[in-house]
Design a protein that fits this description.
globular; 155 residues; mainly alpha; 70% helix
């Protein structure tokens, strides 16, 4: 009997470990995201989708509806409803495209930027409070992991 063939290979062990890591990260990230959502400003009644659109416009600048839908990974009709609500509330504005008269560009308005900054400040404050309860080593590890998690979110 060839005992070596029955032992799991290093690759198999790594796949199992990666599967466990994937599961642990999925659960942890979902719990953290859920917890962050509870830290929203109670006076702000914007949906998470609306806040996401404001954040995308803040990061990327003015975008066409198609570009915005692509970045947000939503169907154009859904995005149009979201943008319409934000326009009605004065959070974003529509403008003619600079080179293509058939298209419209959506840009973040000052009111939208103000709401977005207030939301970010509130959540950053909560997170900073949580981080103070960690060791220096744990905070350093999270500092190094943050860009990796961001890269995972972008793929």
């Amino acid at each position: 009997m060839n005992y070596a063939k029955r032992m799991p290979s290093q690759t198999t062990k790594q796949h199992r470990a990666d599967g466990g890591l994937a599961s642990a990260l999925r659960v942890s990230v979902m719990r953290l995201a859920r917890r962050m959502r509870t830290e929203r400003d109670a006076t702000n009644d914007l949906s998470l989708n609306q806040l996401a659109v404001l954040g995308t416009l803040d990061r990327h600048g003015p975008l066409t509806a198609g570009e915005l839908a692509g970045i947000e990974r939503v169907q154009p009709p859904s995005l149009t409803r979201t943008v319409n609500c934000l326009v009605d509330r004065g959070m974003v504005a529509r403008e003619p495209h600079s080179t293509d008269g058939r298209q419209v560009v959506v840009r973040l308005a000052d009111a939208g930027r103000d709401v977005l900054l207030q939301e970010r400040r509130r959540r950053d404050q909560w997170m900073a409070t949580q981080l103070r309860g960690l060791t220096v080593e744990e905070r350093d590890l999270l500092r190094r992991a943050a860009p990796i998690l961001d890269r995972l979110a972008q793929s």
